[in-house]
Amino acid sequence: MVIRIAFLIFSILSVFTAPGFAQYKIGSWRSHLPYSNASKLVLAGDKVFCNTLGGLFYYNRLDKSIDKLSKENGLSDTEVSAMAYSEVTGTTILAYANSNIDLLVNNSIYNIPDIFRHQILGDKRIYSIMVQGNKAYLCTGFGVVVLDLTSREITQTYRIGDGGTQIKVNEISSDGQSLFAATDQGIYTASLSAPNLEDFNYWQRMTGIPQFDQKFSSTEFINGKVYVVYSSGIVDGDIIYSWNGTNWESFSDLMKLNSAYIGDNINHLSDWNGNIVITGSYHVHVFNPGGFRIKFYSAGSPKCAYFDNSSILWVADESQGLREFIDEYNYSVLTPNGPTTIYVASIAISGNTLYTVPGGKNSDYTNLYRQGTINTFKSNLWSGKKSTSYRDFYRVAIDPLDADHYFVGSWGYGLFEYQNDSLINVYREENSTLQTIIPGDFYRLGGLNFDAEGNLWVTNSIVSEPVSVLLKKNHEWTSFSLNNLVSSYNMGDIIHTQSGYKWMILNIAKGLFVIDDNGTIENKDDDRYKKLDVKDEFNAIITNDINALAEDHDGNIWLGTNKGVLVYYNPSRVFEDNNFYAQQILIPRNDGSPYGDALLGTETVTAIAVDGANRKWLGTRNAGVTLVSEDGLKQIYNFTSENSPLLSNSITSIAINDKTGEVFFGTDKGIISFVAEATGPSENFESVFVYPNPVRENFTGDVKITGLPEKTTVKITDINGNIVYESLSLGGQALWNGKNFDGDKVQTGVYLIFCSNEDGTLSHVTKLLFIH
Length: 772
Prior knowledge:
By secondary structure, the protein is mainly β.
């Protein structure tokens, strides 16, 4: 009997298991940040923490693993500004740009929000941290704050400027007797034996040093001397001085005397066995106290460097991330995979392939002159490519028939066509109908979109033919003058709708424009055009400031504006209806009154995406992301940087992977994604898939039934036909929590899953093994 049961379970497993099907838990988050632009590192026991422009990670020297740290796994904030480690307490200290603080002790995180919450006029950013024993000295824009790492409390604040005024402290060091603060106004010192260091009278500016009232960026106590860096502000003009307890000497002059001209500005100082480690703009130098260079590392773009106890040099590099130098000539790059930049202007997804570009225009429509960059996310790996000739890649559109064929529009340099990530064409005036405002790189392309036949539509700002089309059938171009109705406008995004009409945004609060080409793109005689002011039913303009537009599954046009969300419920009548108007979605107040409030009416909506269940994801300029129901009346999620791992409340773009339900949010601090419940619907039941299958006893989360038509009724029964669960799919996916109608986990056994589409014309049955 035992043998037969084992064989039965093995048979079921062999039928139900689908190897290689990647899944992510519903409700989980994933950040997608660049880790190559490193600024700081700290050696913390067996770990090397490295801070980058995109985020924080650490390298474990014992098992050689790399792990990313973010709000997803417990950090309190984003954008680390300073780090340090206390060997006495085993504490890694993380200070954020907004002055919030986390303490990492073993596997616990302790938040110290005191400075963040305290109302302080002026700059309260934490620039660096020095640890002595169980105390951490936080150098801020207003002075020095002392944090007790044992009690995890802030104990003192030193405002050390003349008369107790606030002064920016860049770094602090100590010789065990006194403190030395490198500030924007010179070097200040105080005795540690002073009765009250919170009294500014115990702090004195040291006037015996050259440039005594100028900016000093760094300080470090090494081998009995205090070293400081005078930050000159000119190339190769920084000077290192040393204090021997009596007077100041120029260590830079001593280096030159020994023919050791470093040729760099100085980013950082550290100590290695009594030698001075100097992190320059391009190299890391090691000098002995006599001014002789004993080691030299060509390190690219280093920001700081430390030696560990094994004499391995660790470098935070601005171009490669974390670098481990075994010796002066051999190194490894230990950096997590990620995109090349935090900037996100446009995200496009087709299947399991994602492309994103960083953007190229300011709010006044002038160029940003960002390097032309495309980042690709495929097979859960990021890759990036940069152009040395072109800049300001602004929009991206993927060929609906070929996910490896895509186009990138720039704000100035033309249209770029790629196949398999290789550039195959650059379209400008000489080989297309695209136009430049003036001779040169002024092709200001505001939007790209494919129509149902695979033709690429492009909007072109402030030119005589503001819309161009690359025809699929012959790869030739045609363009529209549109009777000069919009030739003077900055053109924005464009969408192709179910009716065949093309809707586009007119930037700088000029409303919308609609084209009906009557299905004959090359024949302009039967075209219809209409410029729209966004009006209400009383013919009053609500707003013409449009940032985003999207068509939902029912053909309604949703607008993201500076006054929340507006909807056109009858867009096919845009040319026939003289009183064509948009409507606000009014959310009932539920206070007994008949009144309602406009959906996100007080927010500027910057991005809209429609998921597989026809729900709307709404991104805002300052209030994060909101998911609303199909009709917009019910809020399902509201994500902000305060209540979720969302990187920022400023959303630039939203795109959805319809196959997996993963929603990608572009923010002003990078990309992060959230696995939602809805996927794109299927036309039939040919690709139904259940995951996990089997459901093992230690599984937590929801069982996914995917590959369903929209609004599929799903009924789950035991082997005897007793219904234990019933649900309606969200787009192409239904979820089951493994419980029956009474909320109890079902027993071990085989369960049947019955699926039928909305009108009952299609049905499907599949099996699931559930292990209690």
